[in-house]
Amino acid sequence: MRNRPVSQTQPISGISLGRRKLLTLLAATSLIGASAKAQSKPVRVGILSGEDEDIWRIVQENARATGLTIEVVTFSEGNPINAALAAGDLDANAFQHGPYLQAQNTALGSHIVPVGNTYFAPIGFYSKKWKTLSTIPDDATIGVPADPTNEGRALKLLQSLGLLKISPDAGEMPTALDISDNPKNLTIKELDDPVLARSLPDLDAGVVITEWAYKAGIDLKSERLARESMDNNPYINFIAVNEPYAHATWVQPLVSAFQKPNVRAKLLEAYHGAIIPAWT
């Protein structure tokens, strides 16, 4: 026996089809209104204070032209930025690379993900005493950053230059204890970033983060013996958000506002060519 056809006025679970359509329409209208309201709120982005503030003023102008308002929140150091994002006090941040974020996600129990590249700040190998790699003497003292992420990065650069070898079992963040071959008997001295940059005259050479090299007045061209390549490099910086918001409607406009020719030009100007725009 065939089921009896249901008329439009016949109740289903106590609600007629006509009323159900009306409720659906009202719900959809409510969601659209809520979405529009959410879009109208400023997107709060955490960054490091300094030259990046000049960069983000241009990003804000670019975003404003598309109807997106960005509120920039500055921090003097990186660790609190991810904590603020994970807590929901920020919508996004832009200051870090992949290995740093991986360590922070582990430490915080957070789920922050990258959504668009910004720039690459290659670490450099600098010396005020020696002019070429070949003149670095045996028993030289080489400074490297003391934090695990950047120390590993520095040691990998020294390995790529043929100055030492790292144990293949060291993982992504090797330390001086993981050096398996040191043919020049180099002394590796671990120093905090600002101290390392200022101590370069007292060292034979040092692997210095670009930002601190710039702030310490190191000549990024004449005193640089080598620097990282950007090819297949995990240390490219990016804009990051909490994972549930990776596909939010404001994310792509935010990324697009950064990845503009006027931002590229300002990056090169503000950092005197020391950093490289990391989008195509």
Automatic annotation (TrEMBL):
Pfam families xref list: Lipoprotein_9
Top-rank taxon, per record: Bacteria
Topology in membrane: Lipid-anchor
Alphabetical keyword list: Lipoprotein, Membrane, Palmitate, Signal
Compartment annotation: Membrane
Entry similarity comment: Belongs to the nlpA lipoprotein family.
Listed name of the protein: Lipoprotein
